[in-house]
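Revision sheet: structure tokens.
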Amino acid sequence: MSDLEDFLRHVPEDGTAIGNATLQRLLKWPEKKYLEVREQLLAKGQVFKSAGRGGAIRRSGAVKDDERLLALLPVDGSTIGKTRLLEKLGWDEDRYFAARDRLVDTGKVVRGVGRGGTLRLAETPIDAPVAMPAQPDARSNRRPPVSDAERAPDNREERYYKALAETLRTQWAKDRSFTRVEVEITAKQGRRDTGGRWSRPDLTAVSLTRYRYIPGVFLDVTTFEVKTIEALDVTGVYEALAHRRSATRAYLLCVADGPLTDGQKERIIPVEEEAARHGIGLFVIDNVRDHETWTERCEARRFDADPEKLNDFIARQLSGELQQNILEWLRG
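Predicted:
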């Protein structure tokens, strides 16, 4: 077997990516040899580079199929049926489903309802039509209501994201004894389609845990909704609850930035009661950079999320780099 054949033998045939570090470890080659053979296959067009920490590799045939399927999906975000796609592509169902599942797993398309199943693009292109806001009636002095999208964003919570993410990644994670953990800021994703209102948590932690006496590994997705003490009410609980439909745990983080006043203590009571009722975790935080000042008022209960929803959340909400890390964790 040639080096080129040996290399390709270790690249997944289903089109999923494999990290360079993982592939080199499987081949047991020195870095120089690995890079030389990889470059030969890239030049021949037999493999393509993919996203991920340290880079990744995918088979070229799968990439071309994915691109062909994507090109047939309406740019306005409307759905198209499987039967019509198969007619246009000239594929059998196995080939279609392989490409569809890769695109779903990477968050590029979303499955819809309809006879035989439908697909639509997960992200709205920049040049897609955008609905214009209603114009005020010239005969009236009244202005139309201001929509949520037109209101200026409230950046009071946003200023805490980076520090909170770092504290979660280091101090909180150490307290939980995870085997692996990564934390990302998921609030700011531009026009990316992440599933609608309340589908986008402010922060997300993905963790892998191994137990001494329990076989296997346990992957958890924990979401965090951030509120300042001034903005805190039970709505934050419902936002966290919406996130948990596609996660295993959900927290509401209340940033007090100092000792609580009597009025603030009163404000927390109904929120704490509602969080406890729904199994949502609640932290009241004095100093965002010091986990010792985080008071856990409610513990987040773990729920077994629907695997499809969990997979869709990872594909649509998390970065390509973190997605690649998760794949490498699970392979290890």
